[in-house]
UniProtKB/TrEMBL annotation:
It comes from the Bacteria. It comes from Sphingobium terrigena. The keyword Iron applies. Pfam families: Molybdop_Fe4S4, Molybdopterin, Molydop_binding. InterPro entries: Asp_de-COase-like_dom_sf, MoPterin_dinucl-bd_dom, Mopterin_OxRdtase, Mopterin_OxRdtase_4Fe-4S_dom, Mopterin_OxRdtase_prok_CS, Prok_Mopterin_Oxidored, YoaE_C. Its cofactor is Mo-bis(molybdopterin guanine dinucleotide). This is Molybdopterin oxidoreductase family protein. Residues 5-62 form the 4Fe-4S Mo/W bis-MGD-type domain. One of its GO terms (molecular function) is oxidoreductase activity. Coiled coil: none annotated. Belongs to the prokaryotic molybdopterin-containing oxidoreductase family. Keywords: Iron, Iron-sulfur, Metal-binding, Molybdenum, Oxidoreductase.
Length: 709
């Protein structure tokens, strides 16, 4: 009998702004291919190099398909298969014992966005760990610093509709490698160019996106705040501001002008390594080619002054009145357009009276003697994340994970660098084996993922995992036994005006639906102010700064207390990198090169870093350097080198090109330590210091030396 191919509408699960609608084909209960859904107006029937062979991820013989117990030394990767009951019994017996003897705070969850589904993603374990009384993990992996800065200036609003970029006349991609990290946005940018727009990319590296731009601004890393203030200086100096917009819809313009007066083009040129003419050209372009729009990437926040840089950039559109028209303004995180029923998924009401909060960037310190904790962390549960590959101070994390007295549970698809250290390893389903509903942080479409096949082996979804754990712990609140169907029914605030006309039935059938907002041809959210700040205006001088530094509750299991509250200057200003030859010449004498570690074209963070198709595309871990630097350190193109500083070392293959500024080296993140020559990755050399806002990381604020192996 001929086998029959059936198709199911799904959605890509990855932590990517594009959230593609995906058509899954299956035969005899097995996924045979995936393709983009041509009906989705934003993602338009194309999947990227990471996901267009997703069936190979699903069907990979390397999948973890059964619960396992470690049999060899930690990190060895030796495990034996056990049953689910045995696994759950062992985990909950250990946790009950730890809670009884050390208190539940000795247990630490660690997770992020392995999948982005509202059910299985960011908050899936929060109700469980909040109820358990475990240490609260502060997950400031991505955009937390930018969110703090944006919220202080503009508020929780979606910003410009990415589709309305077609109406822009001047598009600034500021630290965004759009063709790699947000590739479905590019056709809208390209369409604007066909209609006469100019495209500018601000990036120390001439990326594939920068190569297609009309103007590439090769800024020195970590100096974006100075550039933004230099632009603001020129806007005021040359009378390029929109006085009417400013007077109606902003506060603090005079103070901002006074602050920006300090940032003369000559001084900014000196800091940023750009010419005063280029800075002036940029300021005039943004002001006079209306509507102009700025798309900020996440890379800006990964610097000591990343928060204040985003503050300064966020002021620019209101200063020149570009919010007045569709396609003008700023795009940061359109996620806020989605009326997700977060409370039902996070359950902050379960948090006990005096919780303990621990930031995930500090994992290495928290697991070793570096950070004395009372009680110390005795158990770690990792799901939806791979800290050994994506978090700083890799050497210290490895040292912590190797502790014999640490009980580690990992839920995964594959034996990642982190999973190797698990005591108990649990099998997780992939997107085609689970049901979910998805927001997006790159467009205004809500997506639905229909389950295509039954779970493989004994894999279970994250929702099922926490149902089983809660039952085994004896948690009785009804929220712990909610089915996936019940959770989908609670996922959204279905009565919100943006949801008009959108039902679960429609989503299941069509796979996606645009939020009920004005069309991209009409959407100008701040044409008449309507900023979501305390004053309702764009706050150049931020009133929220009085309360000090904060992290959004969403990133902290819903917990709003115990914020750092460190003072924040209410006016934007420039904070220099801590590791640069200008601020730390002693360190720079030993480690003269500034390392940045952007996203890998073929991987999604570290996901796909083990799969053959994507590995072939990515090649061996590279480090990109300028010919003058290569010559100075006697390095030839293609040679194996050591990249190192006092924190550690990783190996890479030197790529020599003028596409990178002199003094800066680029090593894309996402390779696996266990698959890299030398057994380490870029995070061997990064630090866990925070940036100025939102406990964002500073891993692009790193000095290294490069030498031949
Ligand atoms: N292919 C692919 N796509 C992805 C991801 C992935 O891993 N791979 N990850 C997804 C996730 S989680 C995220 S958060 C987004 C991130 O998307 P992006 O923000 O675009 O990501 P990055 O590649 O980290 O940084 C973008 C660019 O900023 C530049 N840059 C670095 N430091 C500085 C600086 O100080 N100033 C300026 N102006 N530029 C700087 C880098 O050279 C890089 O080209 O991408 C998502 N999409
Ligand atoms: N040097 C450097 N470091 C970075 C960045 C950078 O640009 N450079 N980017 C930062 C940013 S923006 C981000 S967002 C973080 C990302 O860091 P992480 O969130 O740690 O991202 P991944 O490496 O993709 O790890 C996700 C893991 O979840 C697993 N997974 C996928 N789906 C499921 C599921 O349904 N259930 C379970 N249990 N597991 C699943 C995947 O197999 C994968 O191993 O990294 C940050 N770190
Ligand atoms: S990773 Fe991003 S671009 Fe690639 S298929 Fe998924 S949503 Fe689309
Ligand atoms: Mo991210």
């Amino acid at each position: 009998m001929a086998s029959q191919t059936e198709t199911v509408i799904g959605a890509c699960p990855q932590d990517c702004p594009d959230t593609c609608s995906m058509i899954v084909s299956k035969e005899n209960g097995k996924v045979i291919s995936v393709r983009g859904n041509p009906d989705q107006p934003f993602t338009k029937g194309r999947l990227c190099v990471k996901v267009n062979n997703y069936q190979e991820r699903v069907n990979s013989t390397d999948r973890i398909l059964y619960p396992m117990r470690r049999t060899g030394p930690k990190g060895s990767g030796l495990f034996e298969q056990i049953g689910w009951n045995e696994a759950l019994e062992e985990i909950t017996t250990r946790w009950k014992e730890i809670a009884a003897t050390s208190g539940p705070k000795a247990i630490l969850p660690y997770s992020y966005l392995g999948t982005q589904g509202i059910l299985n993603g960011l908050n899936v374990g929060d109700p469980f760990f909040n109820k358990l009384g475990a240490t609260i993990s502060e997950r400031t992996f991505c955009d937390s610093g930018a969110c703090t800065a944006y919220t202080m200036t503009i508020g929780h609003t979606a910003g410009v509709d990415p589709e309305s970029f077609v109406h822009s006349r001047y598009i600034v991609l500021w630290a965004s490698n759009t063709l790699t990290t947000n590739s479905h946005h590019w056709p809208f940018i390209d369409e604007a160019r066909k209609r006469g727009a100019k495209i500018v990319v601000i990036d120390p590296y001439r990326t594939r996106t920068a190569r297609l731009a009309d103007l590439h601004v090769p800024i020195r890393p970590g100096t974006d705040g100075a550039l933004a203030l230099g632009i603001i200086h020129i806007l005021f100096r040359d009378g390029l501001t929109d006085a009417d917009y400013i007077s109606q819809y902003s506060i603090g313009a005079d103070e901002l002008a006074e602050r920006a007066a300090e940032y003369t083009p000559a001084m900014v040129a000196d800091i940023t390594g750009l010419s005063a003419e280029l800075i002036t050209e940029l300021a005039h372009g943004i002001a006079t080619s209306q509507p102009s729009v700025i798309r900020i990437g996440v890379a800006i926040e990964r610097q000591s002054g990343g928060g204040q840089a985003v503050r300064a950039i966020s002021c620019i559109p209101a200063l020149v009145g570009s919010w007045r028209r569709p396609g003008g303004g700023l795009l940061q995180l359109p996620l806020w357009a989605f009326p997700v029923n977060w409370g039902a998924f996070i359950r902050p009401d379960f948090i006990g009276p005096e919780p303990r909060v621990l930031n995930q960037w500090k994992l290495g310190e928290a697991l070793t003697d570096e950070m004395p904790l009372d009680p110390p962390i005795r158990s770690l549960m990792v799901y939806n994340a791979n800290p050994m590959a994506m978090a700083p101070e890799q050497g210290r994390i490895a040292q912590g994970l190797a502790r014999e007295d640490l009980f580690t549970v990992v839920s995964e698809h594959f034996l990642t660098d982190t999973a190797r250290y698990a005591d108990i390893l649990l099998p997780a389903t992939t997107q085609v084996e689970q049901e979910d509903i998805m927001f997006s942080w790159g467009h205004f479409y809500l997506s639905y993922n229909n389950r295509a096949i039954d779970p493989m082996g004994e894999a279970i979804s994250n929702t099922e995992l926490f149902r089983r754990l809660a039952k085994a712990m004896g948690f009785e609140d009804p929220c712990f036994s909610r089915t996936d169907e019940e959770q989908i029914a609670q996922a959204m605030l279905w009565d919100a005006p943006q949801m008009e006309g959108i039902t679960v039935e429609r989503l299941k059938r069509e796979g996606f639906a645009r939020l009920n907002l004005p069309s991209a041809d009409e959407y100008a959210p701040h044409a008449q102010g309507n900023f979501a700040t305390p004053s309702g205006k764009c706050e150049f001088k931020a009133s929220m700064a009085a309360e000090g530094n904060f992290v959004l509750g969403l990133f902290r299991q819903g917990y709003d207390g115990q914020q750092s509250g460190e003072p924040i200057d209410p006016l934007p200003h420039y904070i220099a990198p801590q590791e640069s030859r200008f601020t730390n010449p002693v360190l720079a004498a030993r480690y003269p090169l500034n390392l940045i570690t952007p996203k890998n074209h073929a991987f999604l963070s570290s996901s796909f870093g083990n799969l053959p198709h994507q590995r072939r595309h990515a090649g061996e871990q590279p480090v990109v350097m300028h010919p003058a630097d290569a010559a100075k350190y006697g390095i030839a193109a293609g040679e194996r080198v050591r990249v190192h500083n006092d924190r550690g070392t990783f190996e890479a293959i030197a790529q020599v090109t003028k596409d990178i500024r002199q003094g800066v080296v680029v090593a894309p993140a996402g390779h696996w330590a266990s698959l890299n020559s030398g057994g380490a990755t870029v995070h061997a050399v990064t630090s866990s210091r925070y940036a100025d806002m939102g406990a964002a990381p500073t891993f692009s604020d790193t000095l290294v030396a490069v030498e031949r192996c």
